[in-house]
Structure formats: structure tokens, C-alpha cells
Write a structure and sequence with these properties.
Layout: E1 10-14, H1 25-31, E2 39-45, E3 48-53, H2 62-77, E4 87-90, H3 103-108, E5 112-116, E6 119-122, H4 124-143, E7 147-148, E8 154-156, H5 157-162, H6 165-168, E9 175-176, H7 183-192, E10 195-196, E11 199-200, E12 212-214, H8 219-225, E13 229-230, E14 236-245, E15 260-270, H9 272-293, E16 297-301, H10 308-320, E17 324-331, E18 336-345, H11 349-353, E19 356-357, E20 365-372, H12 373-384, H13 393-396
Parallel strand pairs: 7-14, 13-19
Antiparallel strand pairs: 1-3, 2-3, 4-16, 5-6, 8-12, 9-12, 10-11, 14-15, 15-20, 16-17, 17-18, 18-20
The chain binds adenosine monophosphate (AMP) and zinc ion.
Length: about 400
């Protein structure tokens, strides 16, 4: 999405084909980003949809666009039932010292530079703050004796295919390719490669078939490394940090939602009880840390952002079996919360899909604790401001500032 298109948008308004329950308005609004390239902003309430579209000329029919939007509404809202939100911890009322959006000041100071939509360079303040959080996450990993791993940034398409990723999250994939091994193609590229306002002008035929993508998660790499064999010792705990990529279209705003972000995970593979007990232990240990630094947050049940066709069924399944809990930190400046981490249990999904077996021959269960490094730092700044002198002593004590 280029910023040019965001200029002078046309407004299109209509009622949804079925009334949208309140708990689904945000999910449906986020999905409208993927409905049509001309949509630059969408706003959804239970009985009203507003689209801002650009470019748009009056001769264009709004009916076709509205038809696509109604497909999303009907697929996600019709017959949906309200998930029971389970709250495991609620510390949203912890007093915090700041109420502004940190982003404008971070940009002004050059502490954050935007390279492209959702792609940011971070300066020393954020880098040091992230290193502080990383230390805590590494202590959590050490408390489980987690084995350290380094995973690649690329992930083979056939891996993602094996775990049904293309059906569940097609909208957020990021593809990797290279020039075909052909002298004419490479010569042509080297002489004529140029960018216009949409990007690189190279003819699509110059690129090879896609074999790899940019990885959307960290723990998948461990499951692939363990695939098609018995699980060593019947259980594994591992930890890794990695770059993750999720294309979130017009939802890519500030450090809250990035295309390229980093995640630290602690990953558990073993029996059902082993995974669930460790996931719970991790939550309790993190609660102590969050209390020590005074973070305002709550932990509540959640679902992954499945794409439209898969959404209703899969989200209901995750919710019914309590597979995902998010750590949602308060963002005081917008009276809202942001997921800075998650406690996940995948049952034996990866064990079955990838043939990872326990000593009794049954498929292994998996779970992970995942922290978004940029998001936790951003939420911290949103609660405590940009001046380290005003930060909680427990954080200051660890920082060379
Ligand atoms: P998930 O696997 O979706 O639960 O993601 C784990 C954590 O990664 C989330 O709780 C966020 O903190 C972070 N995260 C996920 N998507 C993004 C994004 N688009 N931008 C920044 N952080 C993200
Ligand atoms: Zn994971």
C-alpha cells in the first residue's frame, strides 16, 4: 500500500448484511484491509460499515466492492457465537505515570525511523530496553533449562504447507524469490532495475518459483527440526529469538503492528501434562516479573487471526479448548490494550502433522510462550514515558542510561 493512495479518499457507507456482534467488529475491520487494494481505511460497527477508498472515480461501481465486504461479514459473523473470555490475571488498574502516544516523540528524536510500512529501525533507547526484556525472558528460559537454538529467517514453502499455514493465514504471508538462473534475465535486471512509486519495475517472469517465505513464527522451526522421528528423551524445552514477518496491510501502524518484528519464544514439546504444566509455570513466573516492574496488563483467552474462511471454526475451537492466552498490556493513551505476548498450547497438532512421536508412540504435544520484543518495549514506553529517570527503579537498575 503506497502512501499516495491514502490521499483524498472517497467514502463509501452501507449496512452490514447481518448485524455484527460487538466482539467481532475489530476482527472484521482488520480483515477488510485485505478485501480490495483501494481500501485505505475501514471502520466497522455492529450496524454500519465505512470504507475510505482511493483511487476511485465516480464511474466505478460500489456494488462490487460492497459485495466482497458482505462476503467477509457473512462468513465471519453469521452463526458466530460469543466466545467466553477467560481472564487469568487482571492488573490493568496498576498505576502508570504516562498517558501519551510515544510514537511521535520516538520519531522526532530519531529513536525510531520508518523504512517502509511496518518496517522500522530502532535506536539506542529502544534497543537497550529490549535487551533488558530479553534478559528477563532468557532468565525465564533458564528456569526451565531451555536449550538455546538459532533458527533461519527463511522458511520453506513445503514446511508451511505441511502445517496448513496457507489455509489458516494466507493474507499475512511474505514471499521470497530470486532472479532465475538465466544470463539474459540477470543482465536485463542489472541494466534496467529501477523503482517507481509502486516498487521495483522488474517483469514478474524474471523471478523464480517461490520455494521459501519469510518466517511468520519462531517455534515452527523447532517442530520441523524434530519432525519424522521419536522425540529425544520424550520431552524438549527450547528457546530462540527470531525475526518474524506478518504482512498486515493498512493495519501496519506504528510499533504496535509491524511487518517485520522479533519474537522470543520458550517452547515445550512432550506429553499433554508436561506442556500444560510448563505453560502455566511460565505464566506464574512472568507474573512476578511484571509485578516487579509495575506493568499494567491482563492475561485473557484469545484466538489467532485466522483468515476469513477458516476464522469462525478455528477461533471457536481455540477458545473452547483454551489454547491461547494473550498478555495484553495497557496503552493508556488510547484506553486500549496491546498483546505483548502469548501463552499457547497446540495440543498434538504439530505432533500429528509432522510425525513427532512420544516414547509410547503417540504424537507429541507442543506449546510455546512468545513475546513480541518491539511491542513489550512500546507498551512499556506508553505506560512510563521516554525518560529513564522516571522509569521504575527495577528497570533503571539494569540499564546503562
Ligand atoms: P502470536 O504468535 O500471534 O501470539 O504472537 C506472539 C507475539 O508477537 C504477540 O503477542 C505480539 O507481541 C507479537 N506480534 C505478533 N504480531 C505482531 C506484529 N504484526 N507486529 C509486532 N508484534 C507482533
Ligand atoms: Zn510459538
Amino acid at each position: 500500500m503506497s502512501s499516495e493512495r491514502a490521499r483524498n479518499p472517497t467514502r463509501i457507507e452501507f449496512a452490514p448484511a447481518t448485524s455484527i456482534p460487538d466482539y467481532l467488529t475489530d476482527e472484521i475491520q482488520a480483515k477488510l484491509a485485505y478485501v480490495d487494494e483501494r481500501i485505505v481505511r475501514a471502520q466497522v460497527s455492529s450496524d454500519h460499515i465505512l470504507l475510505e477508498v482511493s483511487p476511485w472515480d465516480e464511474a466505478q461501481s460500489a456494488a462490487e466492492l460492497e459485495g466482497k465486504v458482505q462476503r467477509v461479514v457473512l462468513s465471519m459473523a453469521k452463526g458466530a457465537f460469543k466466545p467466553k473470555v477467560q481472564i487469568l490475571e487482571d492488573h490493568l488498574d496498576r498505576p502508570v505515570s504516562f498517558r501519551q502516544d510515544p510514537m511521535p516523540e520516538l520519531l522526532r528524536r530519531g529513536e525510531v525511523s520508518q523504512e517502509a510500512d511496518g518496517v522500522y529501525t530502532l535506536g539506542p533507547l529502544l534497543t537497550r530496553l529490549i535487551a533488558f526484556f530479553e534478559d528477563q525472558f532468557l532468565s525465564l528460559a533458564a528456569s526451565f533449562d531451555a536449550a538455546p537454538y538459532r533458527f533461519p529467517t527463511l522458511i520453506p514453502a513445503r514446511y508451511l504447507e505441511r502445517v496448513n499455514y496457507f489455509r489458516a493465514f494466507p493474507h499475512s504471508l511474505t514471499f521470497v524469490t530470486h532472479l532465475r538462473e538465466d544470463l539474459d534475465v540477470i543482465d536485463e535486471f542489472s541494466q534496467h532495475a529501477a523503482c517507481d512509486q509502486h516498487g521495483l519495475t522488474t517483469p514478474p517472469g524474471s523471478f523464480d518459483t517461490i520455494q521459501t517465505l519469510l518466517s511468520p513464527a519462531v517455534c515452527y522451526h523447532l517442530y520441523f527440526a524434530l519432525a519424522d522421528k521419536p522425540l529425544p528423551g520424550g520431552q524438549v524445552v527450547a528457546t530462540a529469538v527470531g525475526n518474524c514477518f506478518r504482512y498486515e496491510a493498512i493495519n501496519l501502524t506504528s510499533l504496535e503492528r509491524m511487518w517485520n518484528f522479533t519474537m522470543r519464544e520458550v517452547i515445550f514439546v512432550g506429553s499433554k501434562d508436561f506442556v500444560l504444566e510448563n505453560r502455566e509455570l511460565a505464566r506464574q513466573r512472568m507474573a512476578k516479573f511484571f509485578e516487579a516492574i509495575g506493568l499494567a496488563y491482563r492475561v485473557e483467552s484469545a484466538n489467532d487471526p485466522f483468515f476469513i474462511g477458516e476464522f469462525r471454526k478455528q477461533a471457536a475451537f481455540q477458545s473452547a479448548f483454551q489454547l491461547k492466552f494473550e498478555i495484553r498490556a495497557s496503552l493508556p493513551y488510547k484506553d486500549s490494550t496491546l498483546a505483548v505476548g502469548s501463552y499457547n498450547y497446540h495440543q498434538d497438532f504439530f505432533g500429528r502433522s509432522l510425525n513427532i512421536s512420544l516414547p509410547d508412540g503417540s504424537p507429541a504435544h507442543t506449546g510455546c510462550v512468545a513475546f513480541g520484543l518491539e511491542r513489550i518495549a512500546f507498551a512499556f514506553l506508553a505506560q512510563f514515558g521516554l525518560y529513564p529517570a522516571q522509569w521504575p527503579a527495577q528497570v533503571r537498575a539494569h540499564l546503562p542510561i
